[in-house]
Amino acid sequence: MIGTNNVGHRNEASKEVAEGIKAILDRLETKQPQAKILLLGIFPRGATSNDPKRLLTDGTNAIIKNFHDGKRVFYLNINDKFLEKDGTLSKKVMPDLLHPSKAQYQVWANAIDPSLKKLMQ
């Protein structure tokens, strides 16, 4: 969930958050060049699609999806698993509009499981 606090606590611009994520990916490549990284899109913040924090996370996700290289970094955005059809974020899903409810951790696990299995082959 790298980057979510940059958006939520520091209100950093999407470009700045993406640059920080890229720096971490670069550092991981230096330390563990053989590692495969599943880079998840930052989860939605705020109740609606026009919430300022949602706009920052969506903007960051639009940048970081380009870090996917299909060799070392694999981007996956599972935000659709948490959002209603109209793009709203329910407090049943994320009671504080940030952290998933207990049941949503299984949704998260199910959503990333196929990608993790593929990367572990």
UniProtKB/TrEMBL annotation:
Residues 1-107 form the SGNH hydrolase-type esterase domain. This is SGNH hydrolase-type esterase domain-containing protein. It comes from Saccharopolyspora gregorii.
